[in-house]
Write a structure and sequence with these properties.
The chain is built from 3 helices and no strands. This is Coiled coil domain-containing protein.
């Protein structure tokens, strides 16, 4: 009976590790996409006239700050043990949603 419990516990831990790795891969892909979008905005800011450039720079500063805060949350998540990462996931999700909202707001301001 003990070997069955040990086996089940091992399977549960393995599943948790796999879930964490899959989540981290998904988040990394989202960051890469967001960074590409931010770079695109940055290129547009360089092309914009001085007046519009100020808007772009302001929007980019806010995005950089949110992105950096979200990156810190991701690093916490990556360093978390199997038990703690699920708890940290909700904090990361909140930071990610705030970052996405800031990006959307920046796009609206710049259109």
């Amino acid at each position: 009976m003990m070997s069955t419990q040990t086996s089940m516990t091992s399977q549960i831990k393995q599943k948790s590790v796999e879930q964490k790795q899959a989540y981290e891969a998904k988040v990394k892909a989202q960051f890469e996409q967001l960074n590409a979008q931010i770079d695109e905005l940055k290129a547009k800011a360089k092309q914009a006239k001085a007046e519009a450039a100020v808007k772009y720079e302001s929007a980019l500063e806010e995005l950089y700050a949110r992105r950096d805060a979200t990156q810190l949350k991701l690093e916490e998540l990556q360093q978390a043990g199997e038990d703690a990462w699920m708890e940290l996931q909700s904090g990361f999700e909140k930071a990610w949603n705030e970052l996405a909202q800031s990006f959307d707001n920046a796009l609206k301001k710049l259109q």
